[in-house]
Write a structure and sequence with these properties.
Layout: E1 2-5, H1 15-22, H2 28-36, E2 40-42, E3 45-46, E4 58-61, E5 87-90, E6 94-99, H3 116-126, E7 141-142, E8 151-157, H4 160-171, E9 175-184, E10 191-201, E11 206-210, E12 218-230, E13 233-240, H5 247-254, H6 268-274, E14 281-288, E15 304-306, H7 311-316
Parallel strand pairs: 8-14
Antiparallel strand pairs: 1-4, 2-3, 2-4, 5-6, 6-8, 7-8, 9-13, 9-14, 10-11, 10-12, 12-13, 14-15
């Protein structure tokens, strides 16, 4: 419990507005709830949210210490009173989440609060599975990342050992990830493999494709198969053999069949014609293939998970259900 004595400069304010300014990390809806269930008292008596504070009033606040801290990038999850997660799978070690296009996974220059990792931390905090005050070293973390405008399955570790194991399995290519995408035109052949070298241009935040080794370039390999073609569009499944930045988007564009809606590597006139502003790309399938020891995650060996509802599939290829 903490106490706050109201000074003359704060007198005359409504209780809820004063507390809202005093504790910016406390979500407004949660503040109203705390007042309603008597976790906020004034001079030892039940407080009303609209009551006017007087100089000398003493507020008794039965509120978690975290909410009294100053806002920082690592505690902004506290402001999310209703975390929004599309959970594909959950157990005591990890979460598999269906990230929707448009949501960033980590804070960037455009968004600090509404990020996937903040929603995860708020969810686990409210379930009392994790608190920043319980641990000195570990914070729930993402094991893989997906671009803002790409959707799909993201893995989140609830503990340090899970993070270590999954990072190791990703590095050793013991986790199979498959994507669905809509390409402009028809791949020839309809199934095959794309191999190239990708060189990252940090300034432009894009990659360049080469078909020979170049200094700083990284090998990129993608296996693909066409599932269906309708008119000038094709639904293609792509499996990453390497995990490079923009690998699918750049590789298919280099092959002459960019992804529909891709504003960086795609065709602007076609994107505008279809009214698409985000690349039609979804990480829809995940399988754990552990030929080596997986420690506390051994029970996941051979298990697979997928996302069934993908907006661009329903829009352009209705009724089609990919069979991995």
């Amino acid at each position: 419990m903490r106490e706050i004595t109201i000074g003359k400069n704060d007198a005359g304010q409504r209780l809820d507005r004063f507390l809202g300014k005093s504790m910016p990390l406390l979500p407004p809806a949660l503040l109203q709830k705390y007042i309603r269930i008597k976790r906020v008292k004034c001079n030892g008596q039940r407080a009303q949210r609209s009551q006017r504070l007087q100089a000398g009033d003493v507020l008794q606040l039965y509120i978690n210490d975290e909410f009294f801290e100053q806002p920082r990038e690592d505690n902004l999850f506290l402001t999310l009173f209703t975390p929004k997660l599309d959970i594909v799978y959950e157990d005591e070690n990890l979460l598999l989440l269906n990230k929707r296009p448009g949501l960033v996974v980590h804070a960037d220059e455009t968004e600090k609060v509404n990020t996937l990792i903040n929603h995860i931390q708020a969810y686990l905090y409210q379930k009392r599975e994790w608190s920043p005050r319980w641990e000195n070293a570990f914070t729930p973390a993402l094991c893989n990342r997906i671009d803002r405008n790409t959707g799909g399955i993201v893995m989140a570790a609830k503990n340090a050992e899970t993070l270590r194991v999954l990072n190791e399995k990703i590095r050793d290519r013991e986790i199979t990830k498959k994507y669905l995408c809509v390409t402009v035109g028809r791949m020839s052949p309809p199934a095959g493999r794309l191999d190239c070298f990708l060189l990252k241009d940090e300034g432009k935040k894009e990659v360049r494709v080469y078909h020979r080794p170049v200094p700083g370039g990284k090998t990129a390999s993608t296996v693909y198969r066409t599932l269906q073609s309708r008119g000038e569009l094709s639904l293609v499944e792509a499996e990453l053999l390497t995990g490079r930045t923009h690998q699918i988007r750049a590789s298919f564009a280099d092959a002459g069949h960019p992804l529909l809606g891709d504003g960086k590597y795609g065709l602007g006139d076609i994107n505008r014609r279809y009214g698409e502003t985000r690349q039609a790309l979804y990480s829809y399938y995940l399988r754990f293939d552990f030929p080596t020891d997986a420690g506390i995650l051994s029970y996941l060996q051979g298990k697979s998970f997928s996302v069934e509802e993908i907006p661009f599939v329903e829009k352009y290829f209705p009724g089609l259900r990919p069979a991995p």
